[in-house]
Amino acid sequence: MRVGHTYTRHFDLETRQHELLGMDLGEGAPRRALVLGLVLYALWTGALLLLFGLPSKITFTLYFLPPLITAVYGTQRSRIVERRWNITRWSIGVRYLVLGHRPIISAGRRAANRSEWISRRARWAGKAELLAESPLGPLVERWLGAEESVPPGAGAPVRLAARPRLYGPDAVGKAYGRKAMQQYRGNTS
Questions:
Q1: Taking the CA of residue 19 as centre, how many other CA atoms within 13 Å lie in the half-sphere pointing to its CB?
Q2: Nearest CA to 151 among 187, 184, 122, 185?
Q3: Cβ partners under 8 Å of residue 166, min gap 6
Q4: Under 8 Å CB-to-CB from 148, ≥6 apart: which residues?
């Protein structure tokens, strides 16, 4: 079996900020992380200022800490999908749970019907029972919707058993030679 390696991670260069407002940051902080932290801080603090007003000594931590923790842990590389930041994985997961998943049918040639989407109750599979037992149980049950075993119009799941084959240069040369010979024979007749 052959193993492929991707070396693009070695070319993943990021700009770093080595000085900020006259303070030396040593080896520097990644600029994308700083920009993300600034945007999160502005959104979070702006929303809290509109809702609750200026922070007190006790609530200052609530205004400052969540965007900081999100920026620090969110800009680290994901251990599951190495090319993505953690915040990207988190946002994709939240989007899936809240908005859902639209299946791709025939490589996008046909849009999925509403009946072919994965239901909200199916997406929240293990968490639905826990949420239903909470004090907001009836509200959660109404939000999750009715239980559906199989959406109308949908058949049994399709199982794919694809077996990829890797041909070496010698096999490709033989195939190309046959094709060229067939074209030659077709032109002479």
A1: 2
A2: 122
A3: 2
A4: 119, 121, 122
Q: How far apart are CA 73 and CA 88, in angstroms?
A: 11
Q: 83 near 66, Cβ under 8 Å?
A: no
Report the C-alpha gap between 19 and 29 in whole angstroms.
9
Q: Are the beta carbons of 124 and 144 closer than 8 angstroms?
A: yes
Gyration radius of the chain's alpha carbons: 27
Residue type, 45: T
Residue with tokens 């052959």: 2
For the residues of 9-50, what is the DSSP string, one character each? GGG----EEEEETTEEEEEEEEHHHHHHHHHHHHHHHHHHHH
Residue at 161: amino acid letter: A
pLDDT in tens, the chain (189 residues): 566 665 666 666 777 888 888 888 788 888 888 888 899 999 999 999 999 999 888 888 888 899 999 988 888 888 888 778 898 888 888 887 777 766 777 766 777 776 667 777 777 777 666 766 777 667 777 766 666 554 555 566 677 777 777 777 777 777 777 666 666 566 665
